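Lecture notes, structural biology module. Today: joint structure prediction for complexes of three components.
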Amino acid sequence: MIHTDNKANNYLWKKRAAGSAALLVIAGSALAGCSNADQKPAASADAGSSKSGEAITLTFETSLYAEAPHKKAIDALISKYNQLNPNVKITVHGADYENFWDKLTTEVIAGTQGDIVQVYPENISTYNSLVDGGAFVNLDPYIKGKDLEKKLVGQELSKIGDSYYAISNYAWGNTGIFYRKSLFKKAGIDPDSIKTLEDFKNAAVKLGVDTDGDGKLDQYGFASVVGSHPFVASEWYRLVARPVSGGIFFPDGESGPYKADRINVNSEANVWAAKWWQDFINNPRATPPGTRDKKVGREMFWNGQAAMNMDGPWFIGMTKERDPKLMDDLGLMPQPAIEYNGKTYKPNPHTNPSVAMISKKSKHPEEAWKFLEWMTSEEAQQMIAGSGMIPSNKNYVATDAYKKDNPLAVKFMDYLNNLYAPAVMDPPIPEQGTLSQIIINTAQDIFVGKKDPKASLDEAAAKMKEAFK
Amino acid sequence: MKPGVTPLIEQPSLWKREMKRLKDNRVGYLFIAPLVISVALVLLYPIGKAALMSFQYWLVTKPKNGHPFVGLDNYRELFASDYFYRSLGITFLYIIVTVAARYVLGLLTALLLNKNFKGRGLVRALVIIPWAVPEVVTCLVFILMYDYRYGVINDLLLKMKMISNPVAFLGDSHTALGAAMFVNIWKGFPFAAIMLLAGLQSIPKDLYEAATVDGAGIWRQFRSVTLPMLRPVSVVVFLLLVVWTIKDFGIVYVLTGGGPSRVTEILTIFIYKIGFKTFNFGVAAAGGMILLLISIVFTLIYLKATKAGETT
Amino acid sequence: MKLRQPLIYLGAVLISLFAISPFVWMVLTSMKPQSDIYSSPLSYFPTSLHTGGYTAMLNPHADDNVNFMKWFYNTVIVSLLTTVFSIVISALGGYSMSRFRYRGRMAIGYLILITQMLPGSLLIIPLYIIMKQYNLLNSHFGLVIAYSTVAIPFCTWMLKGYFDSVSSSIDEAAMVDGAGRWRTFASIIMPLTLPGLVVTAIFSFLTSWNEFLFAQTFLSDYGKWTLSVGIASFQGQYVVNWDYLMAGSVMTTLPIVIAFWALQKYLVSGMTAGAVK
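The predicted structure, tokenised, for the full assembly:
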């Protein structure tokens, strides 16, 4: 095919070199052009372009919009607010949950995030720090010293250092243990008798039954995740590890100072918790093997193949949607307290509030704030209740009307106030992304790969310390 | 290659070629200009930027007054990680198995679909299905089919007594990589099949007739007509299969997220996590450059070996 | 010869089964109520026919969350434009690389290959920034530009391969007859490489039809979404709407299959006997 002698070959290479050089010049100039353009202050592509001068457009960016109940609640909020303030138009931007965060990262780095961005408290510091000087507005002037500071569940978590960067104006949910009343009855277990982790385990084992007598188990105690899903770590540390150790990353409720020598992941209590969970999760009666993710676990619960499931208030609405008949069989109890080394520890699950930040790039931060503040009002909170989570305004949730309509959800409020230890969240530090990855991988090693808990956690601690170098 | 089958006629004499080149060059540049301009305007900046980032400080959660140059620090950090090498190994295995399988399966399918038989049009349309199903959906339906408890694959294998207990295909570190490869092969073989089929169709029929007259059997026809004539297309298809698989991400990520215990963590997932999960885009960019380097080295060796870059 | 026919049919059946069985599972799943999907023992066929997914896709008022027809329309437009753009540009480029002998043509060929080698997760942020500079975010045109430039390098190499397999004596003969380069290219060579053009068109069309990362990152307005983004949104944080997801996917896939069925006859040889020697 090719007739090349050395000379021709040389010629060819020379030509190539010349061509590459020419292209590099083009590339270089293109790059220069672009990086010059980079220096210009970025104008939000979609915010604030208005014709009438009066009208204002705000963009509201949220990961929740892909969920039908949240979409309904958010749409209702926006149309009501637009009715009250005809000059303010709010458009929602969102993506499905799995991809929302990467998209947000890209936008914040490019400076195109929405005027309002809804996240969870542990995301605030990360996303704010993605650009020099911070990407979001310090909300202290609006919140500090006002009643907002006190009346909103999760407001105290919405801080970077001592300043508020988000308002907890939407809703929250912590977790409890849902159970099937009928299965408990059949097994002769009184749900009220389950107080401690050991009670919980004994019940779970007892609920693992071969119902059709074919020699194989087909009903299990507790649907927990055993796979590559991140829940394989979080169910462990939310249910067992954090209550006894005070923190999976740092002690005393994941509190600072965040230094390498305070890494807590391989503390005695955490190792004990990992061993306990490893035994539990590998007991075929207690937990079904091969449950890939939370979705499958929930299905097993609804099918009656799993008697217990750890979940939040949103699970009530999901169950209702799945089959209204299930509601009569749906019971709820608090997460168990834990006895360890002769002491009893209160459970302390996440509170998970959805909180809102205002972008520094926003052209209408005042208008954005007005909307956010309005969301805490009673009329707005009532719409938010439809999302299935618990509205964040404590005063609203305390009203009889709310209590009457949401008997199960109110229980979560009760647990929070009376049974659970103060809520704990992931440390708000730049290294948190790395720490989370380490804990997920380690949890897979221990609970799926069945590796030795002590050795694995020691290794995790070494890696975490390295992240602080 | 046999002279009788080469598509190229005798080359015109050198001076004639030179003359033509001079006259033609301007037209040639004109023809390729839109391509150069569009690629330069859209893709050169991102690639140049990624290259630049690999030498800069880009741990965005710990801002350091812009993005100062850090020399080779990002690369050093990458090379210091044991998982980088593990990930490299997984990536090579993943590439070798899936590319070979997709190419061979694609070639067999193309040869079959090149034959005349009743219902060929339908079979051709059915074969394109895996390619036409959106990737996210492909992964979700395989997650469903692979499921330990509710998966049809386990159900069938159990019924056929090929296994005695269900297998958590994606959750077990022994099976996860294989299960992910299978999905990749299923999704990817129609591309190879259709491209090679078009290549087969471009082969003039009279070449086969001539070969038959010469007394060549099917196998000889395949070796002396089909394979050489398919080469220009085949070389490109194979090359791009490799290059694309090196940067493949979506299928494995959605199926396993790189787990369990990182056994399916191919390089792109490793890099993605460094970037989007730990926010160190500098190290991620360095990883990307390593990927790029692997691709370039492979491409140069491959094109040199096949001489595809210098045809005609 | 007689023995080969059954073998061919056997092969055809096997390969079809391999290709369609997951799709069949999708179709079955799309018609199952959620309780059938997670039932044990597993039910292969729907216990009762559930059409909720299809209704939601086809009737724009059935569910506010779904605007399937709009997404479908967006996707068709974007994919068609991408196909036209990339075929025109890469046919010209491929022909140039195959037929001309100017400096640096292979260098260009190699350089455009490099654009195929970086993972999307790395390209996405700089690409997003440059799209922002061009003011092409949240626009279908921007998406077309991005898709085209991503598809062009492959299409160019592919078409170069096809042009290479057509003897340049044909060009010369045409030019001796008085046709210019352009006419030779457009009316003589292009028709001869029809299978190549068809497959590269299929490639660029399908690439944009299914692309997810760029569409998801560049498009913010829900009404501007493409099918892959819309369908992915049926997978929530808490549940998967299997009926929506599968119905949407079946309806995304089927038009492609039907179109391909109709188009595959153009995958025949562009070379009539005797045209090349």
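Point to remember: The two ends of chain B are 14 Å apart (CA to CA).
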